[in-house]
Amino acid sequence: MRIALFEPEIAGNVGAVLRLGACLGVAVDLIEPMGFAWDDARVRRTAMDYIDAVEITRHSGWDAFRAGCPGRLVLLTTKGNASLYDAAFAPDDILLIGKESAGVPQSVADQCALALRIPIRREVRSLNLATAAALALGEALRQTGQLP
For the chain, what is the domain count? Predict the structure, then answer.
């Protein structure tokens, strides 16, 4: 199981996802370009010392990511056609989360085996990226028996 962030824009969200990966033993892939400098202190401030306990791979772009991570892609999106809680996860899935402002382009979405949404109230648009990652990863690890 892996988490992949497509062109993330907010350093604090990346830091929170890195901490999540460290706590649950899941590698994190960062697909560039990112909307901040990698040495941004906000990443380390949010991730704290957990940044040293997670496997992080930075990819120069989408093609480099796919060349290095050829597994099944599970996209988390507000446009998903199925609920996160109705999906069947596999142990080697890659949970893909798009950039905060725009998600992923259609060309990327078309390469995903599943497009899942997290059920929320209709009056609101979406969860925070790191919160969505935590909910999805928790469910995927629970289903596959990989919780620490």
Answer: 1
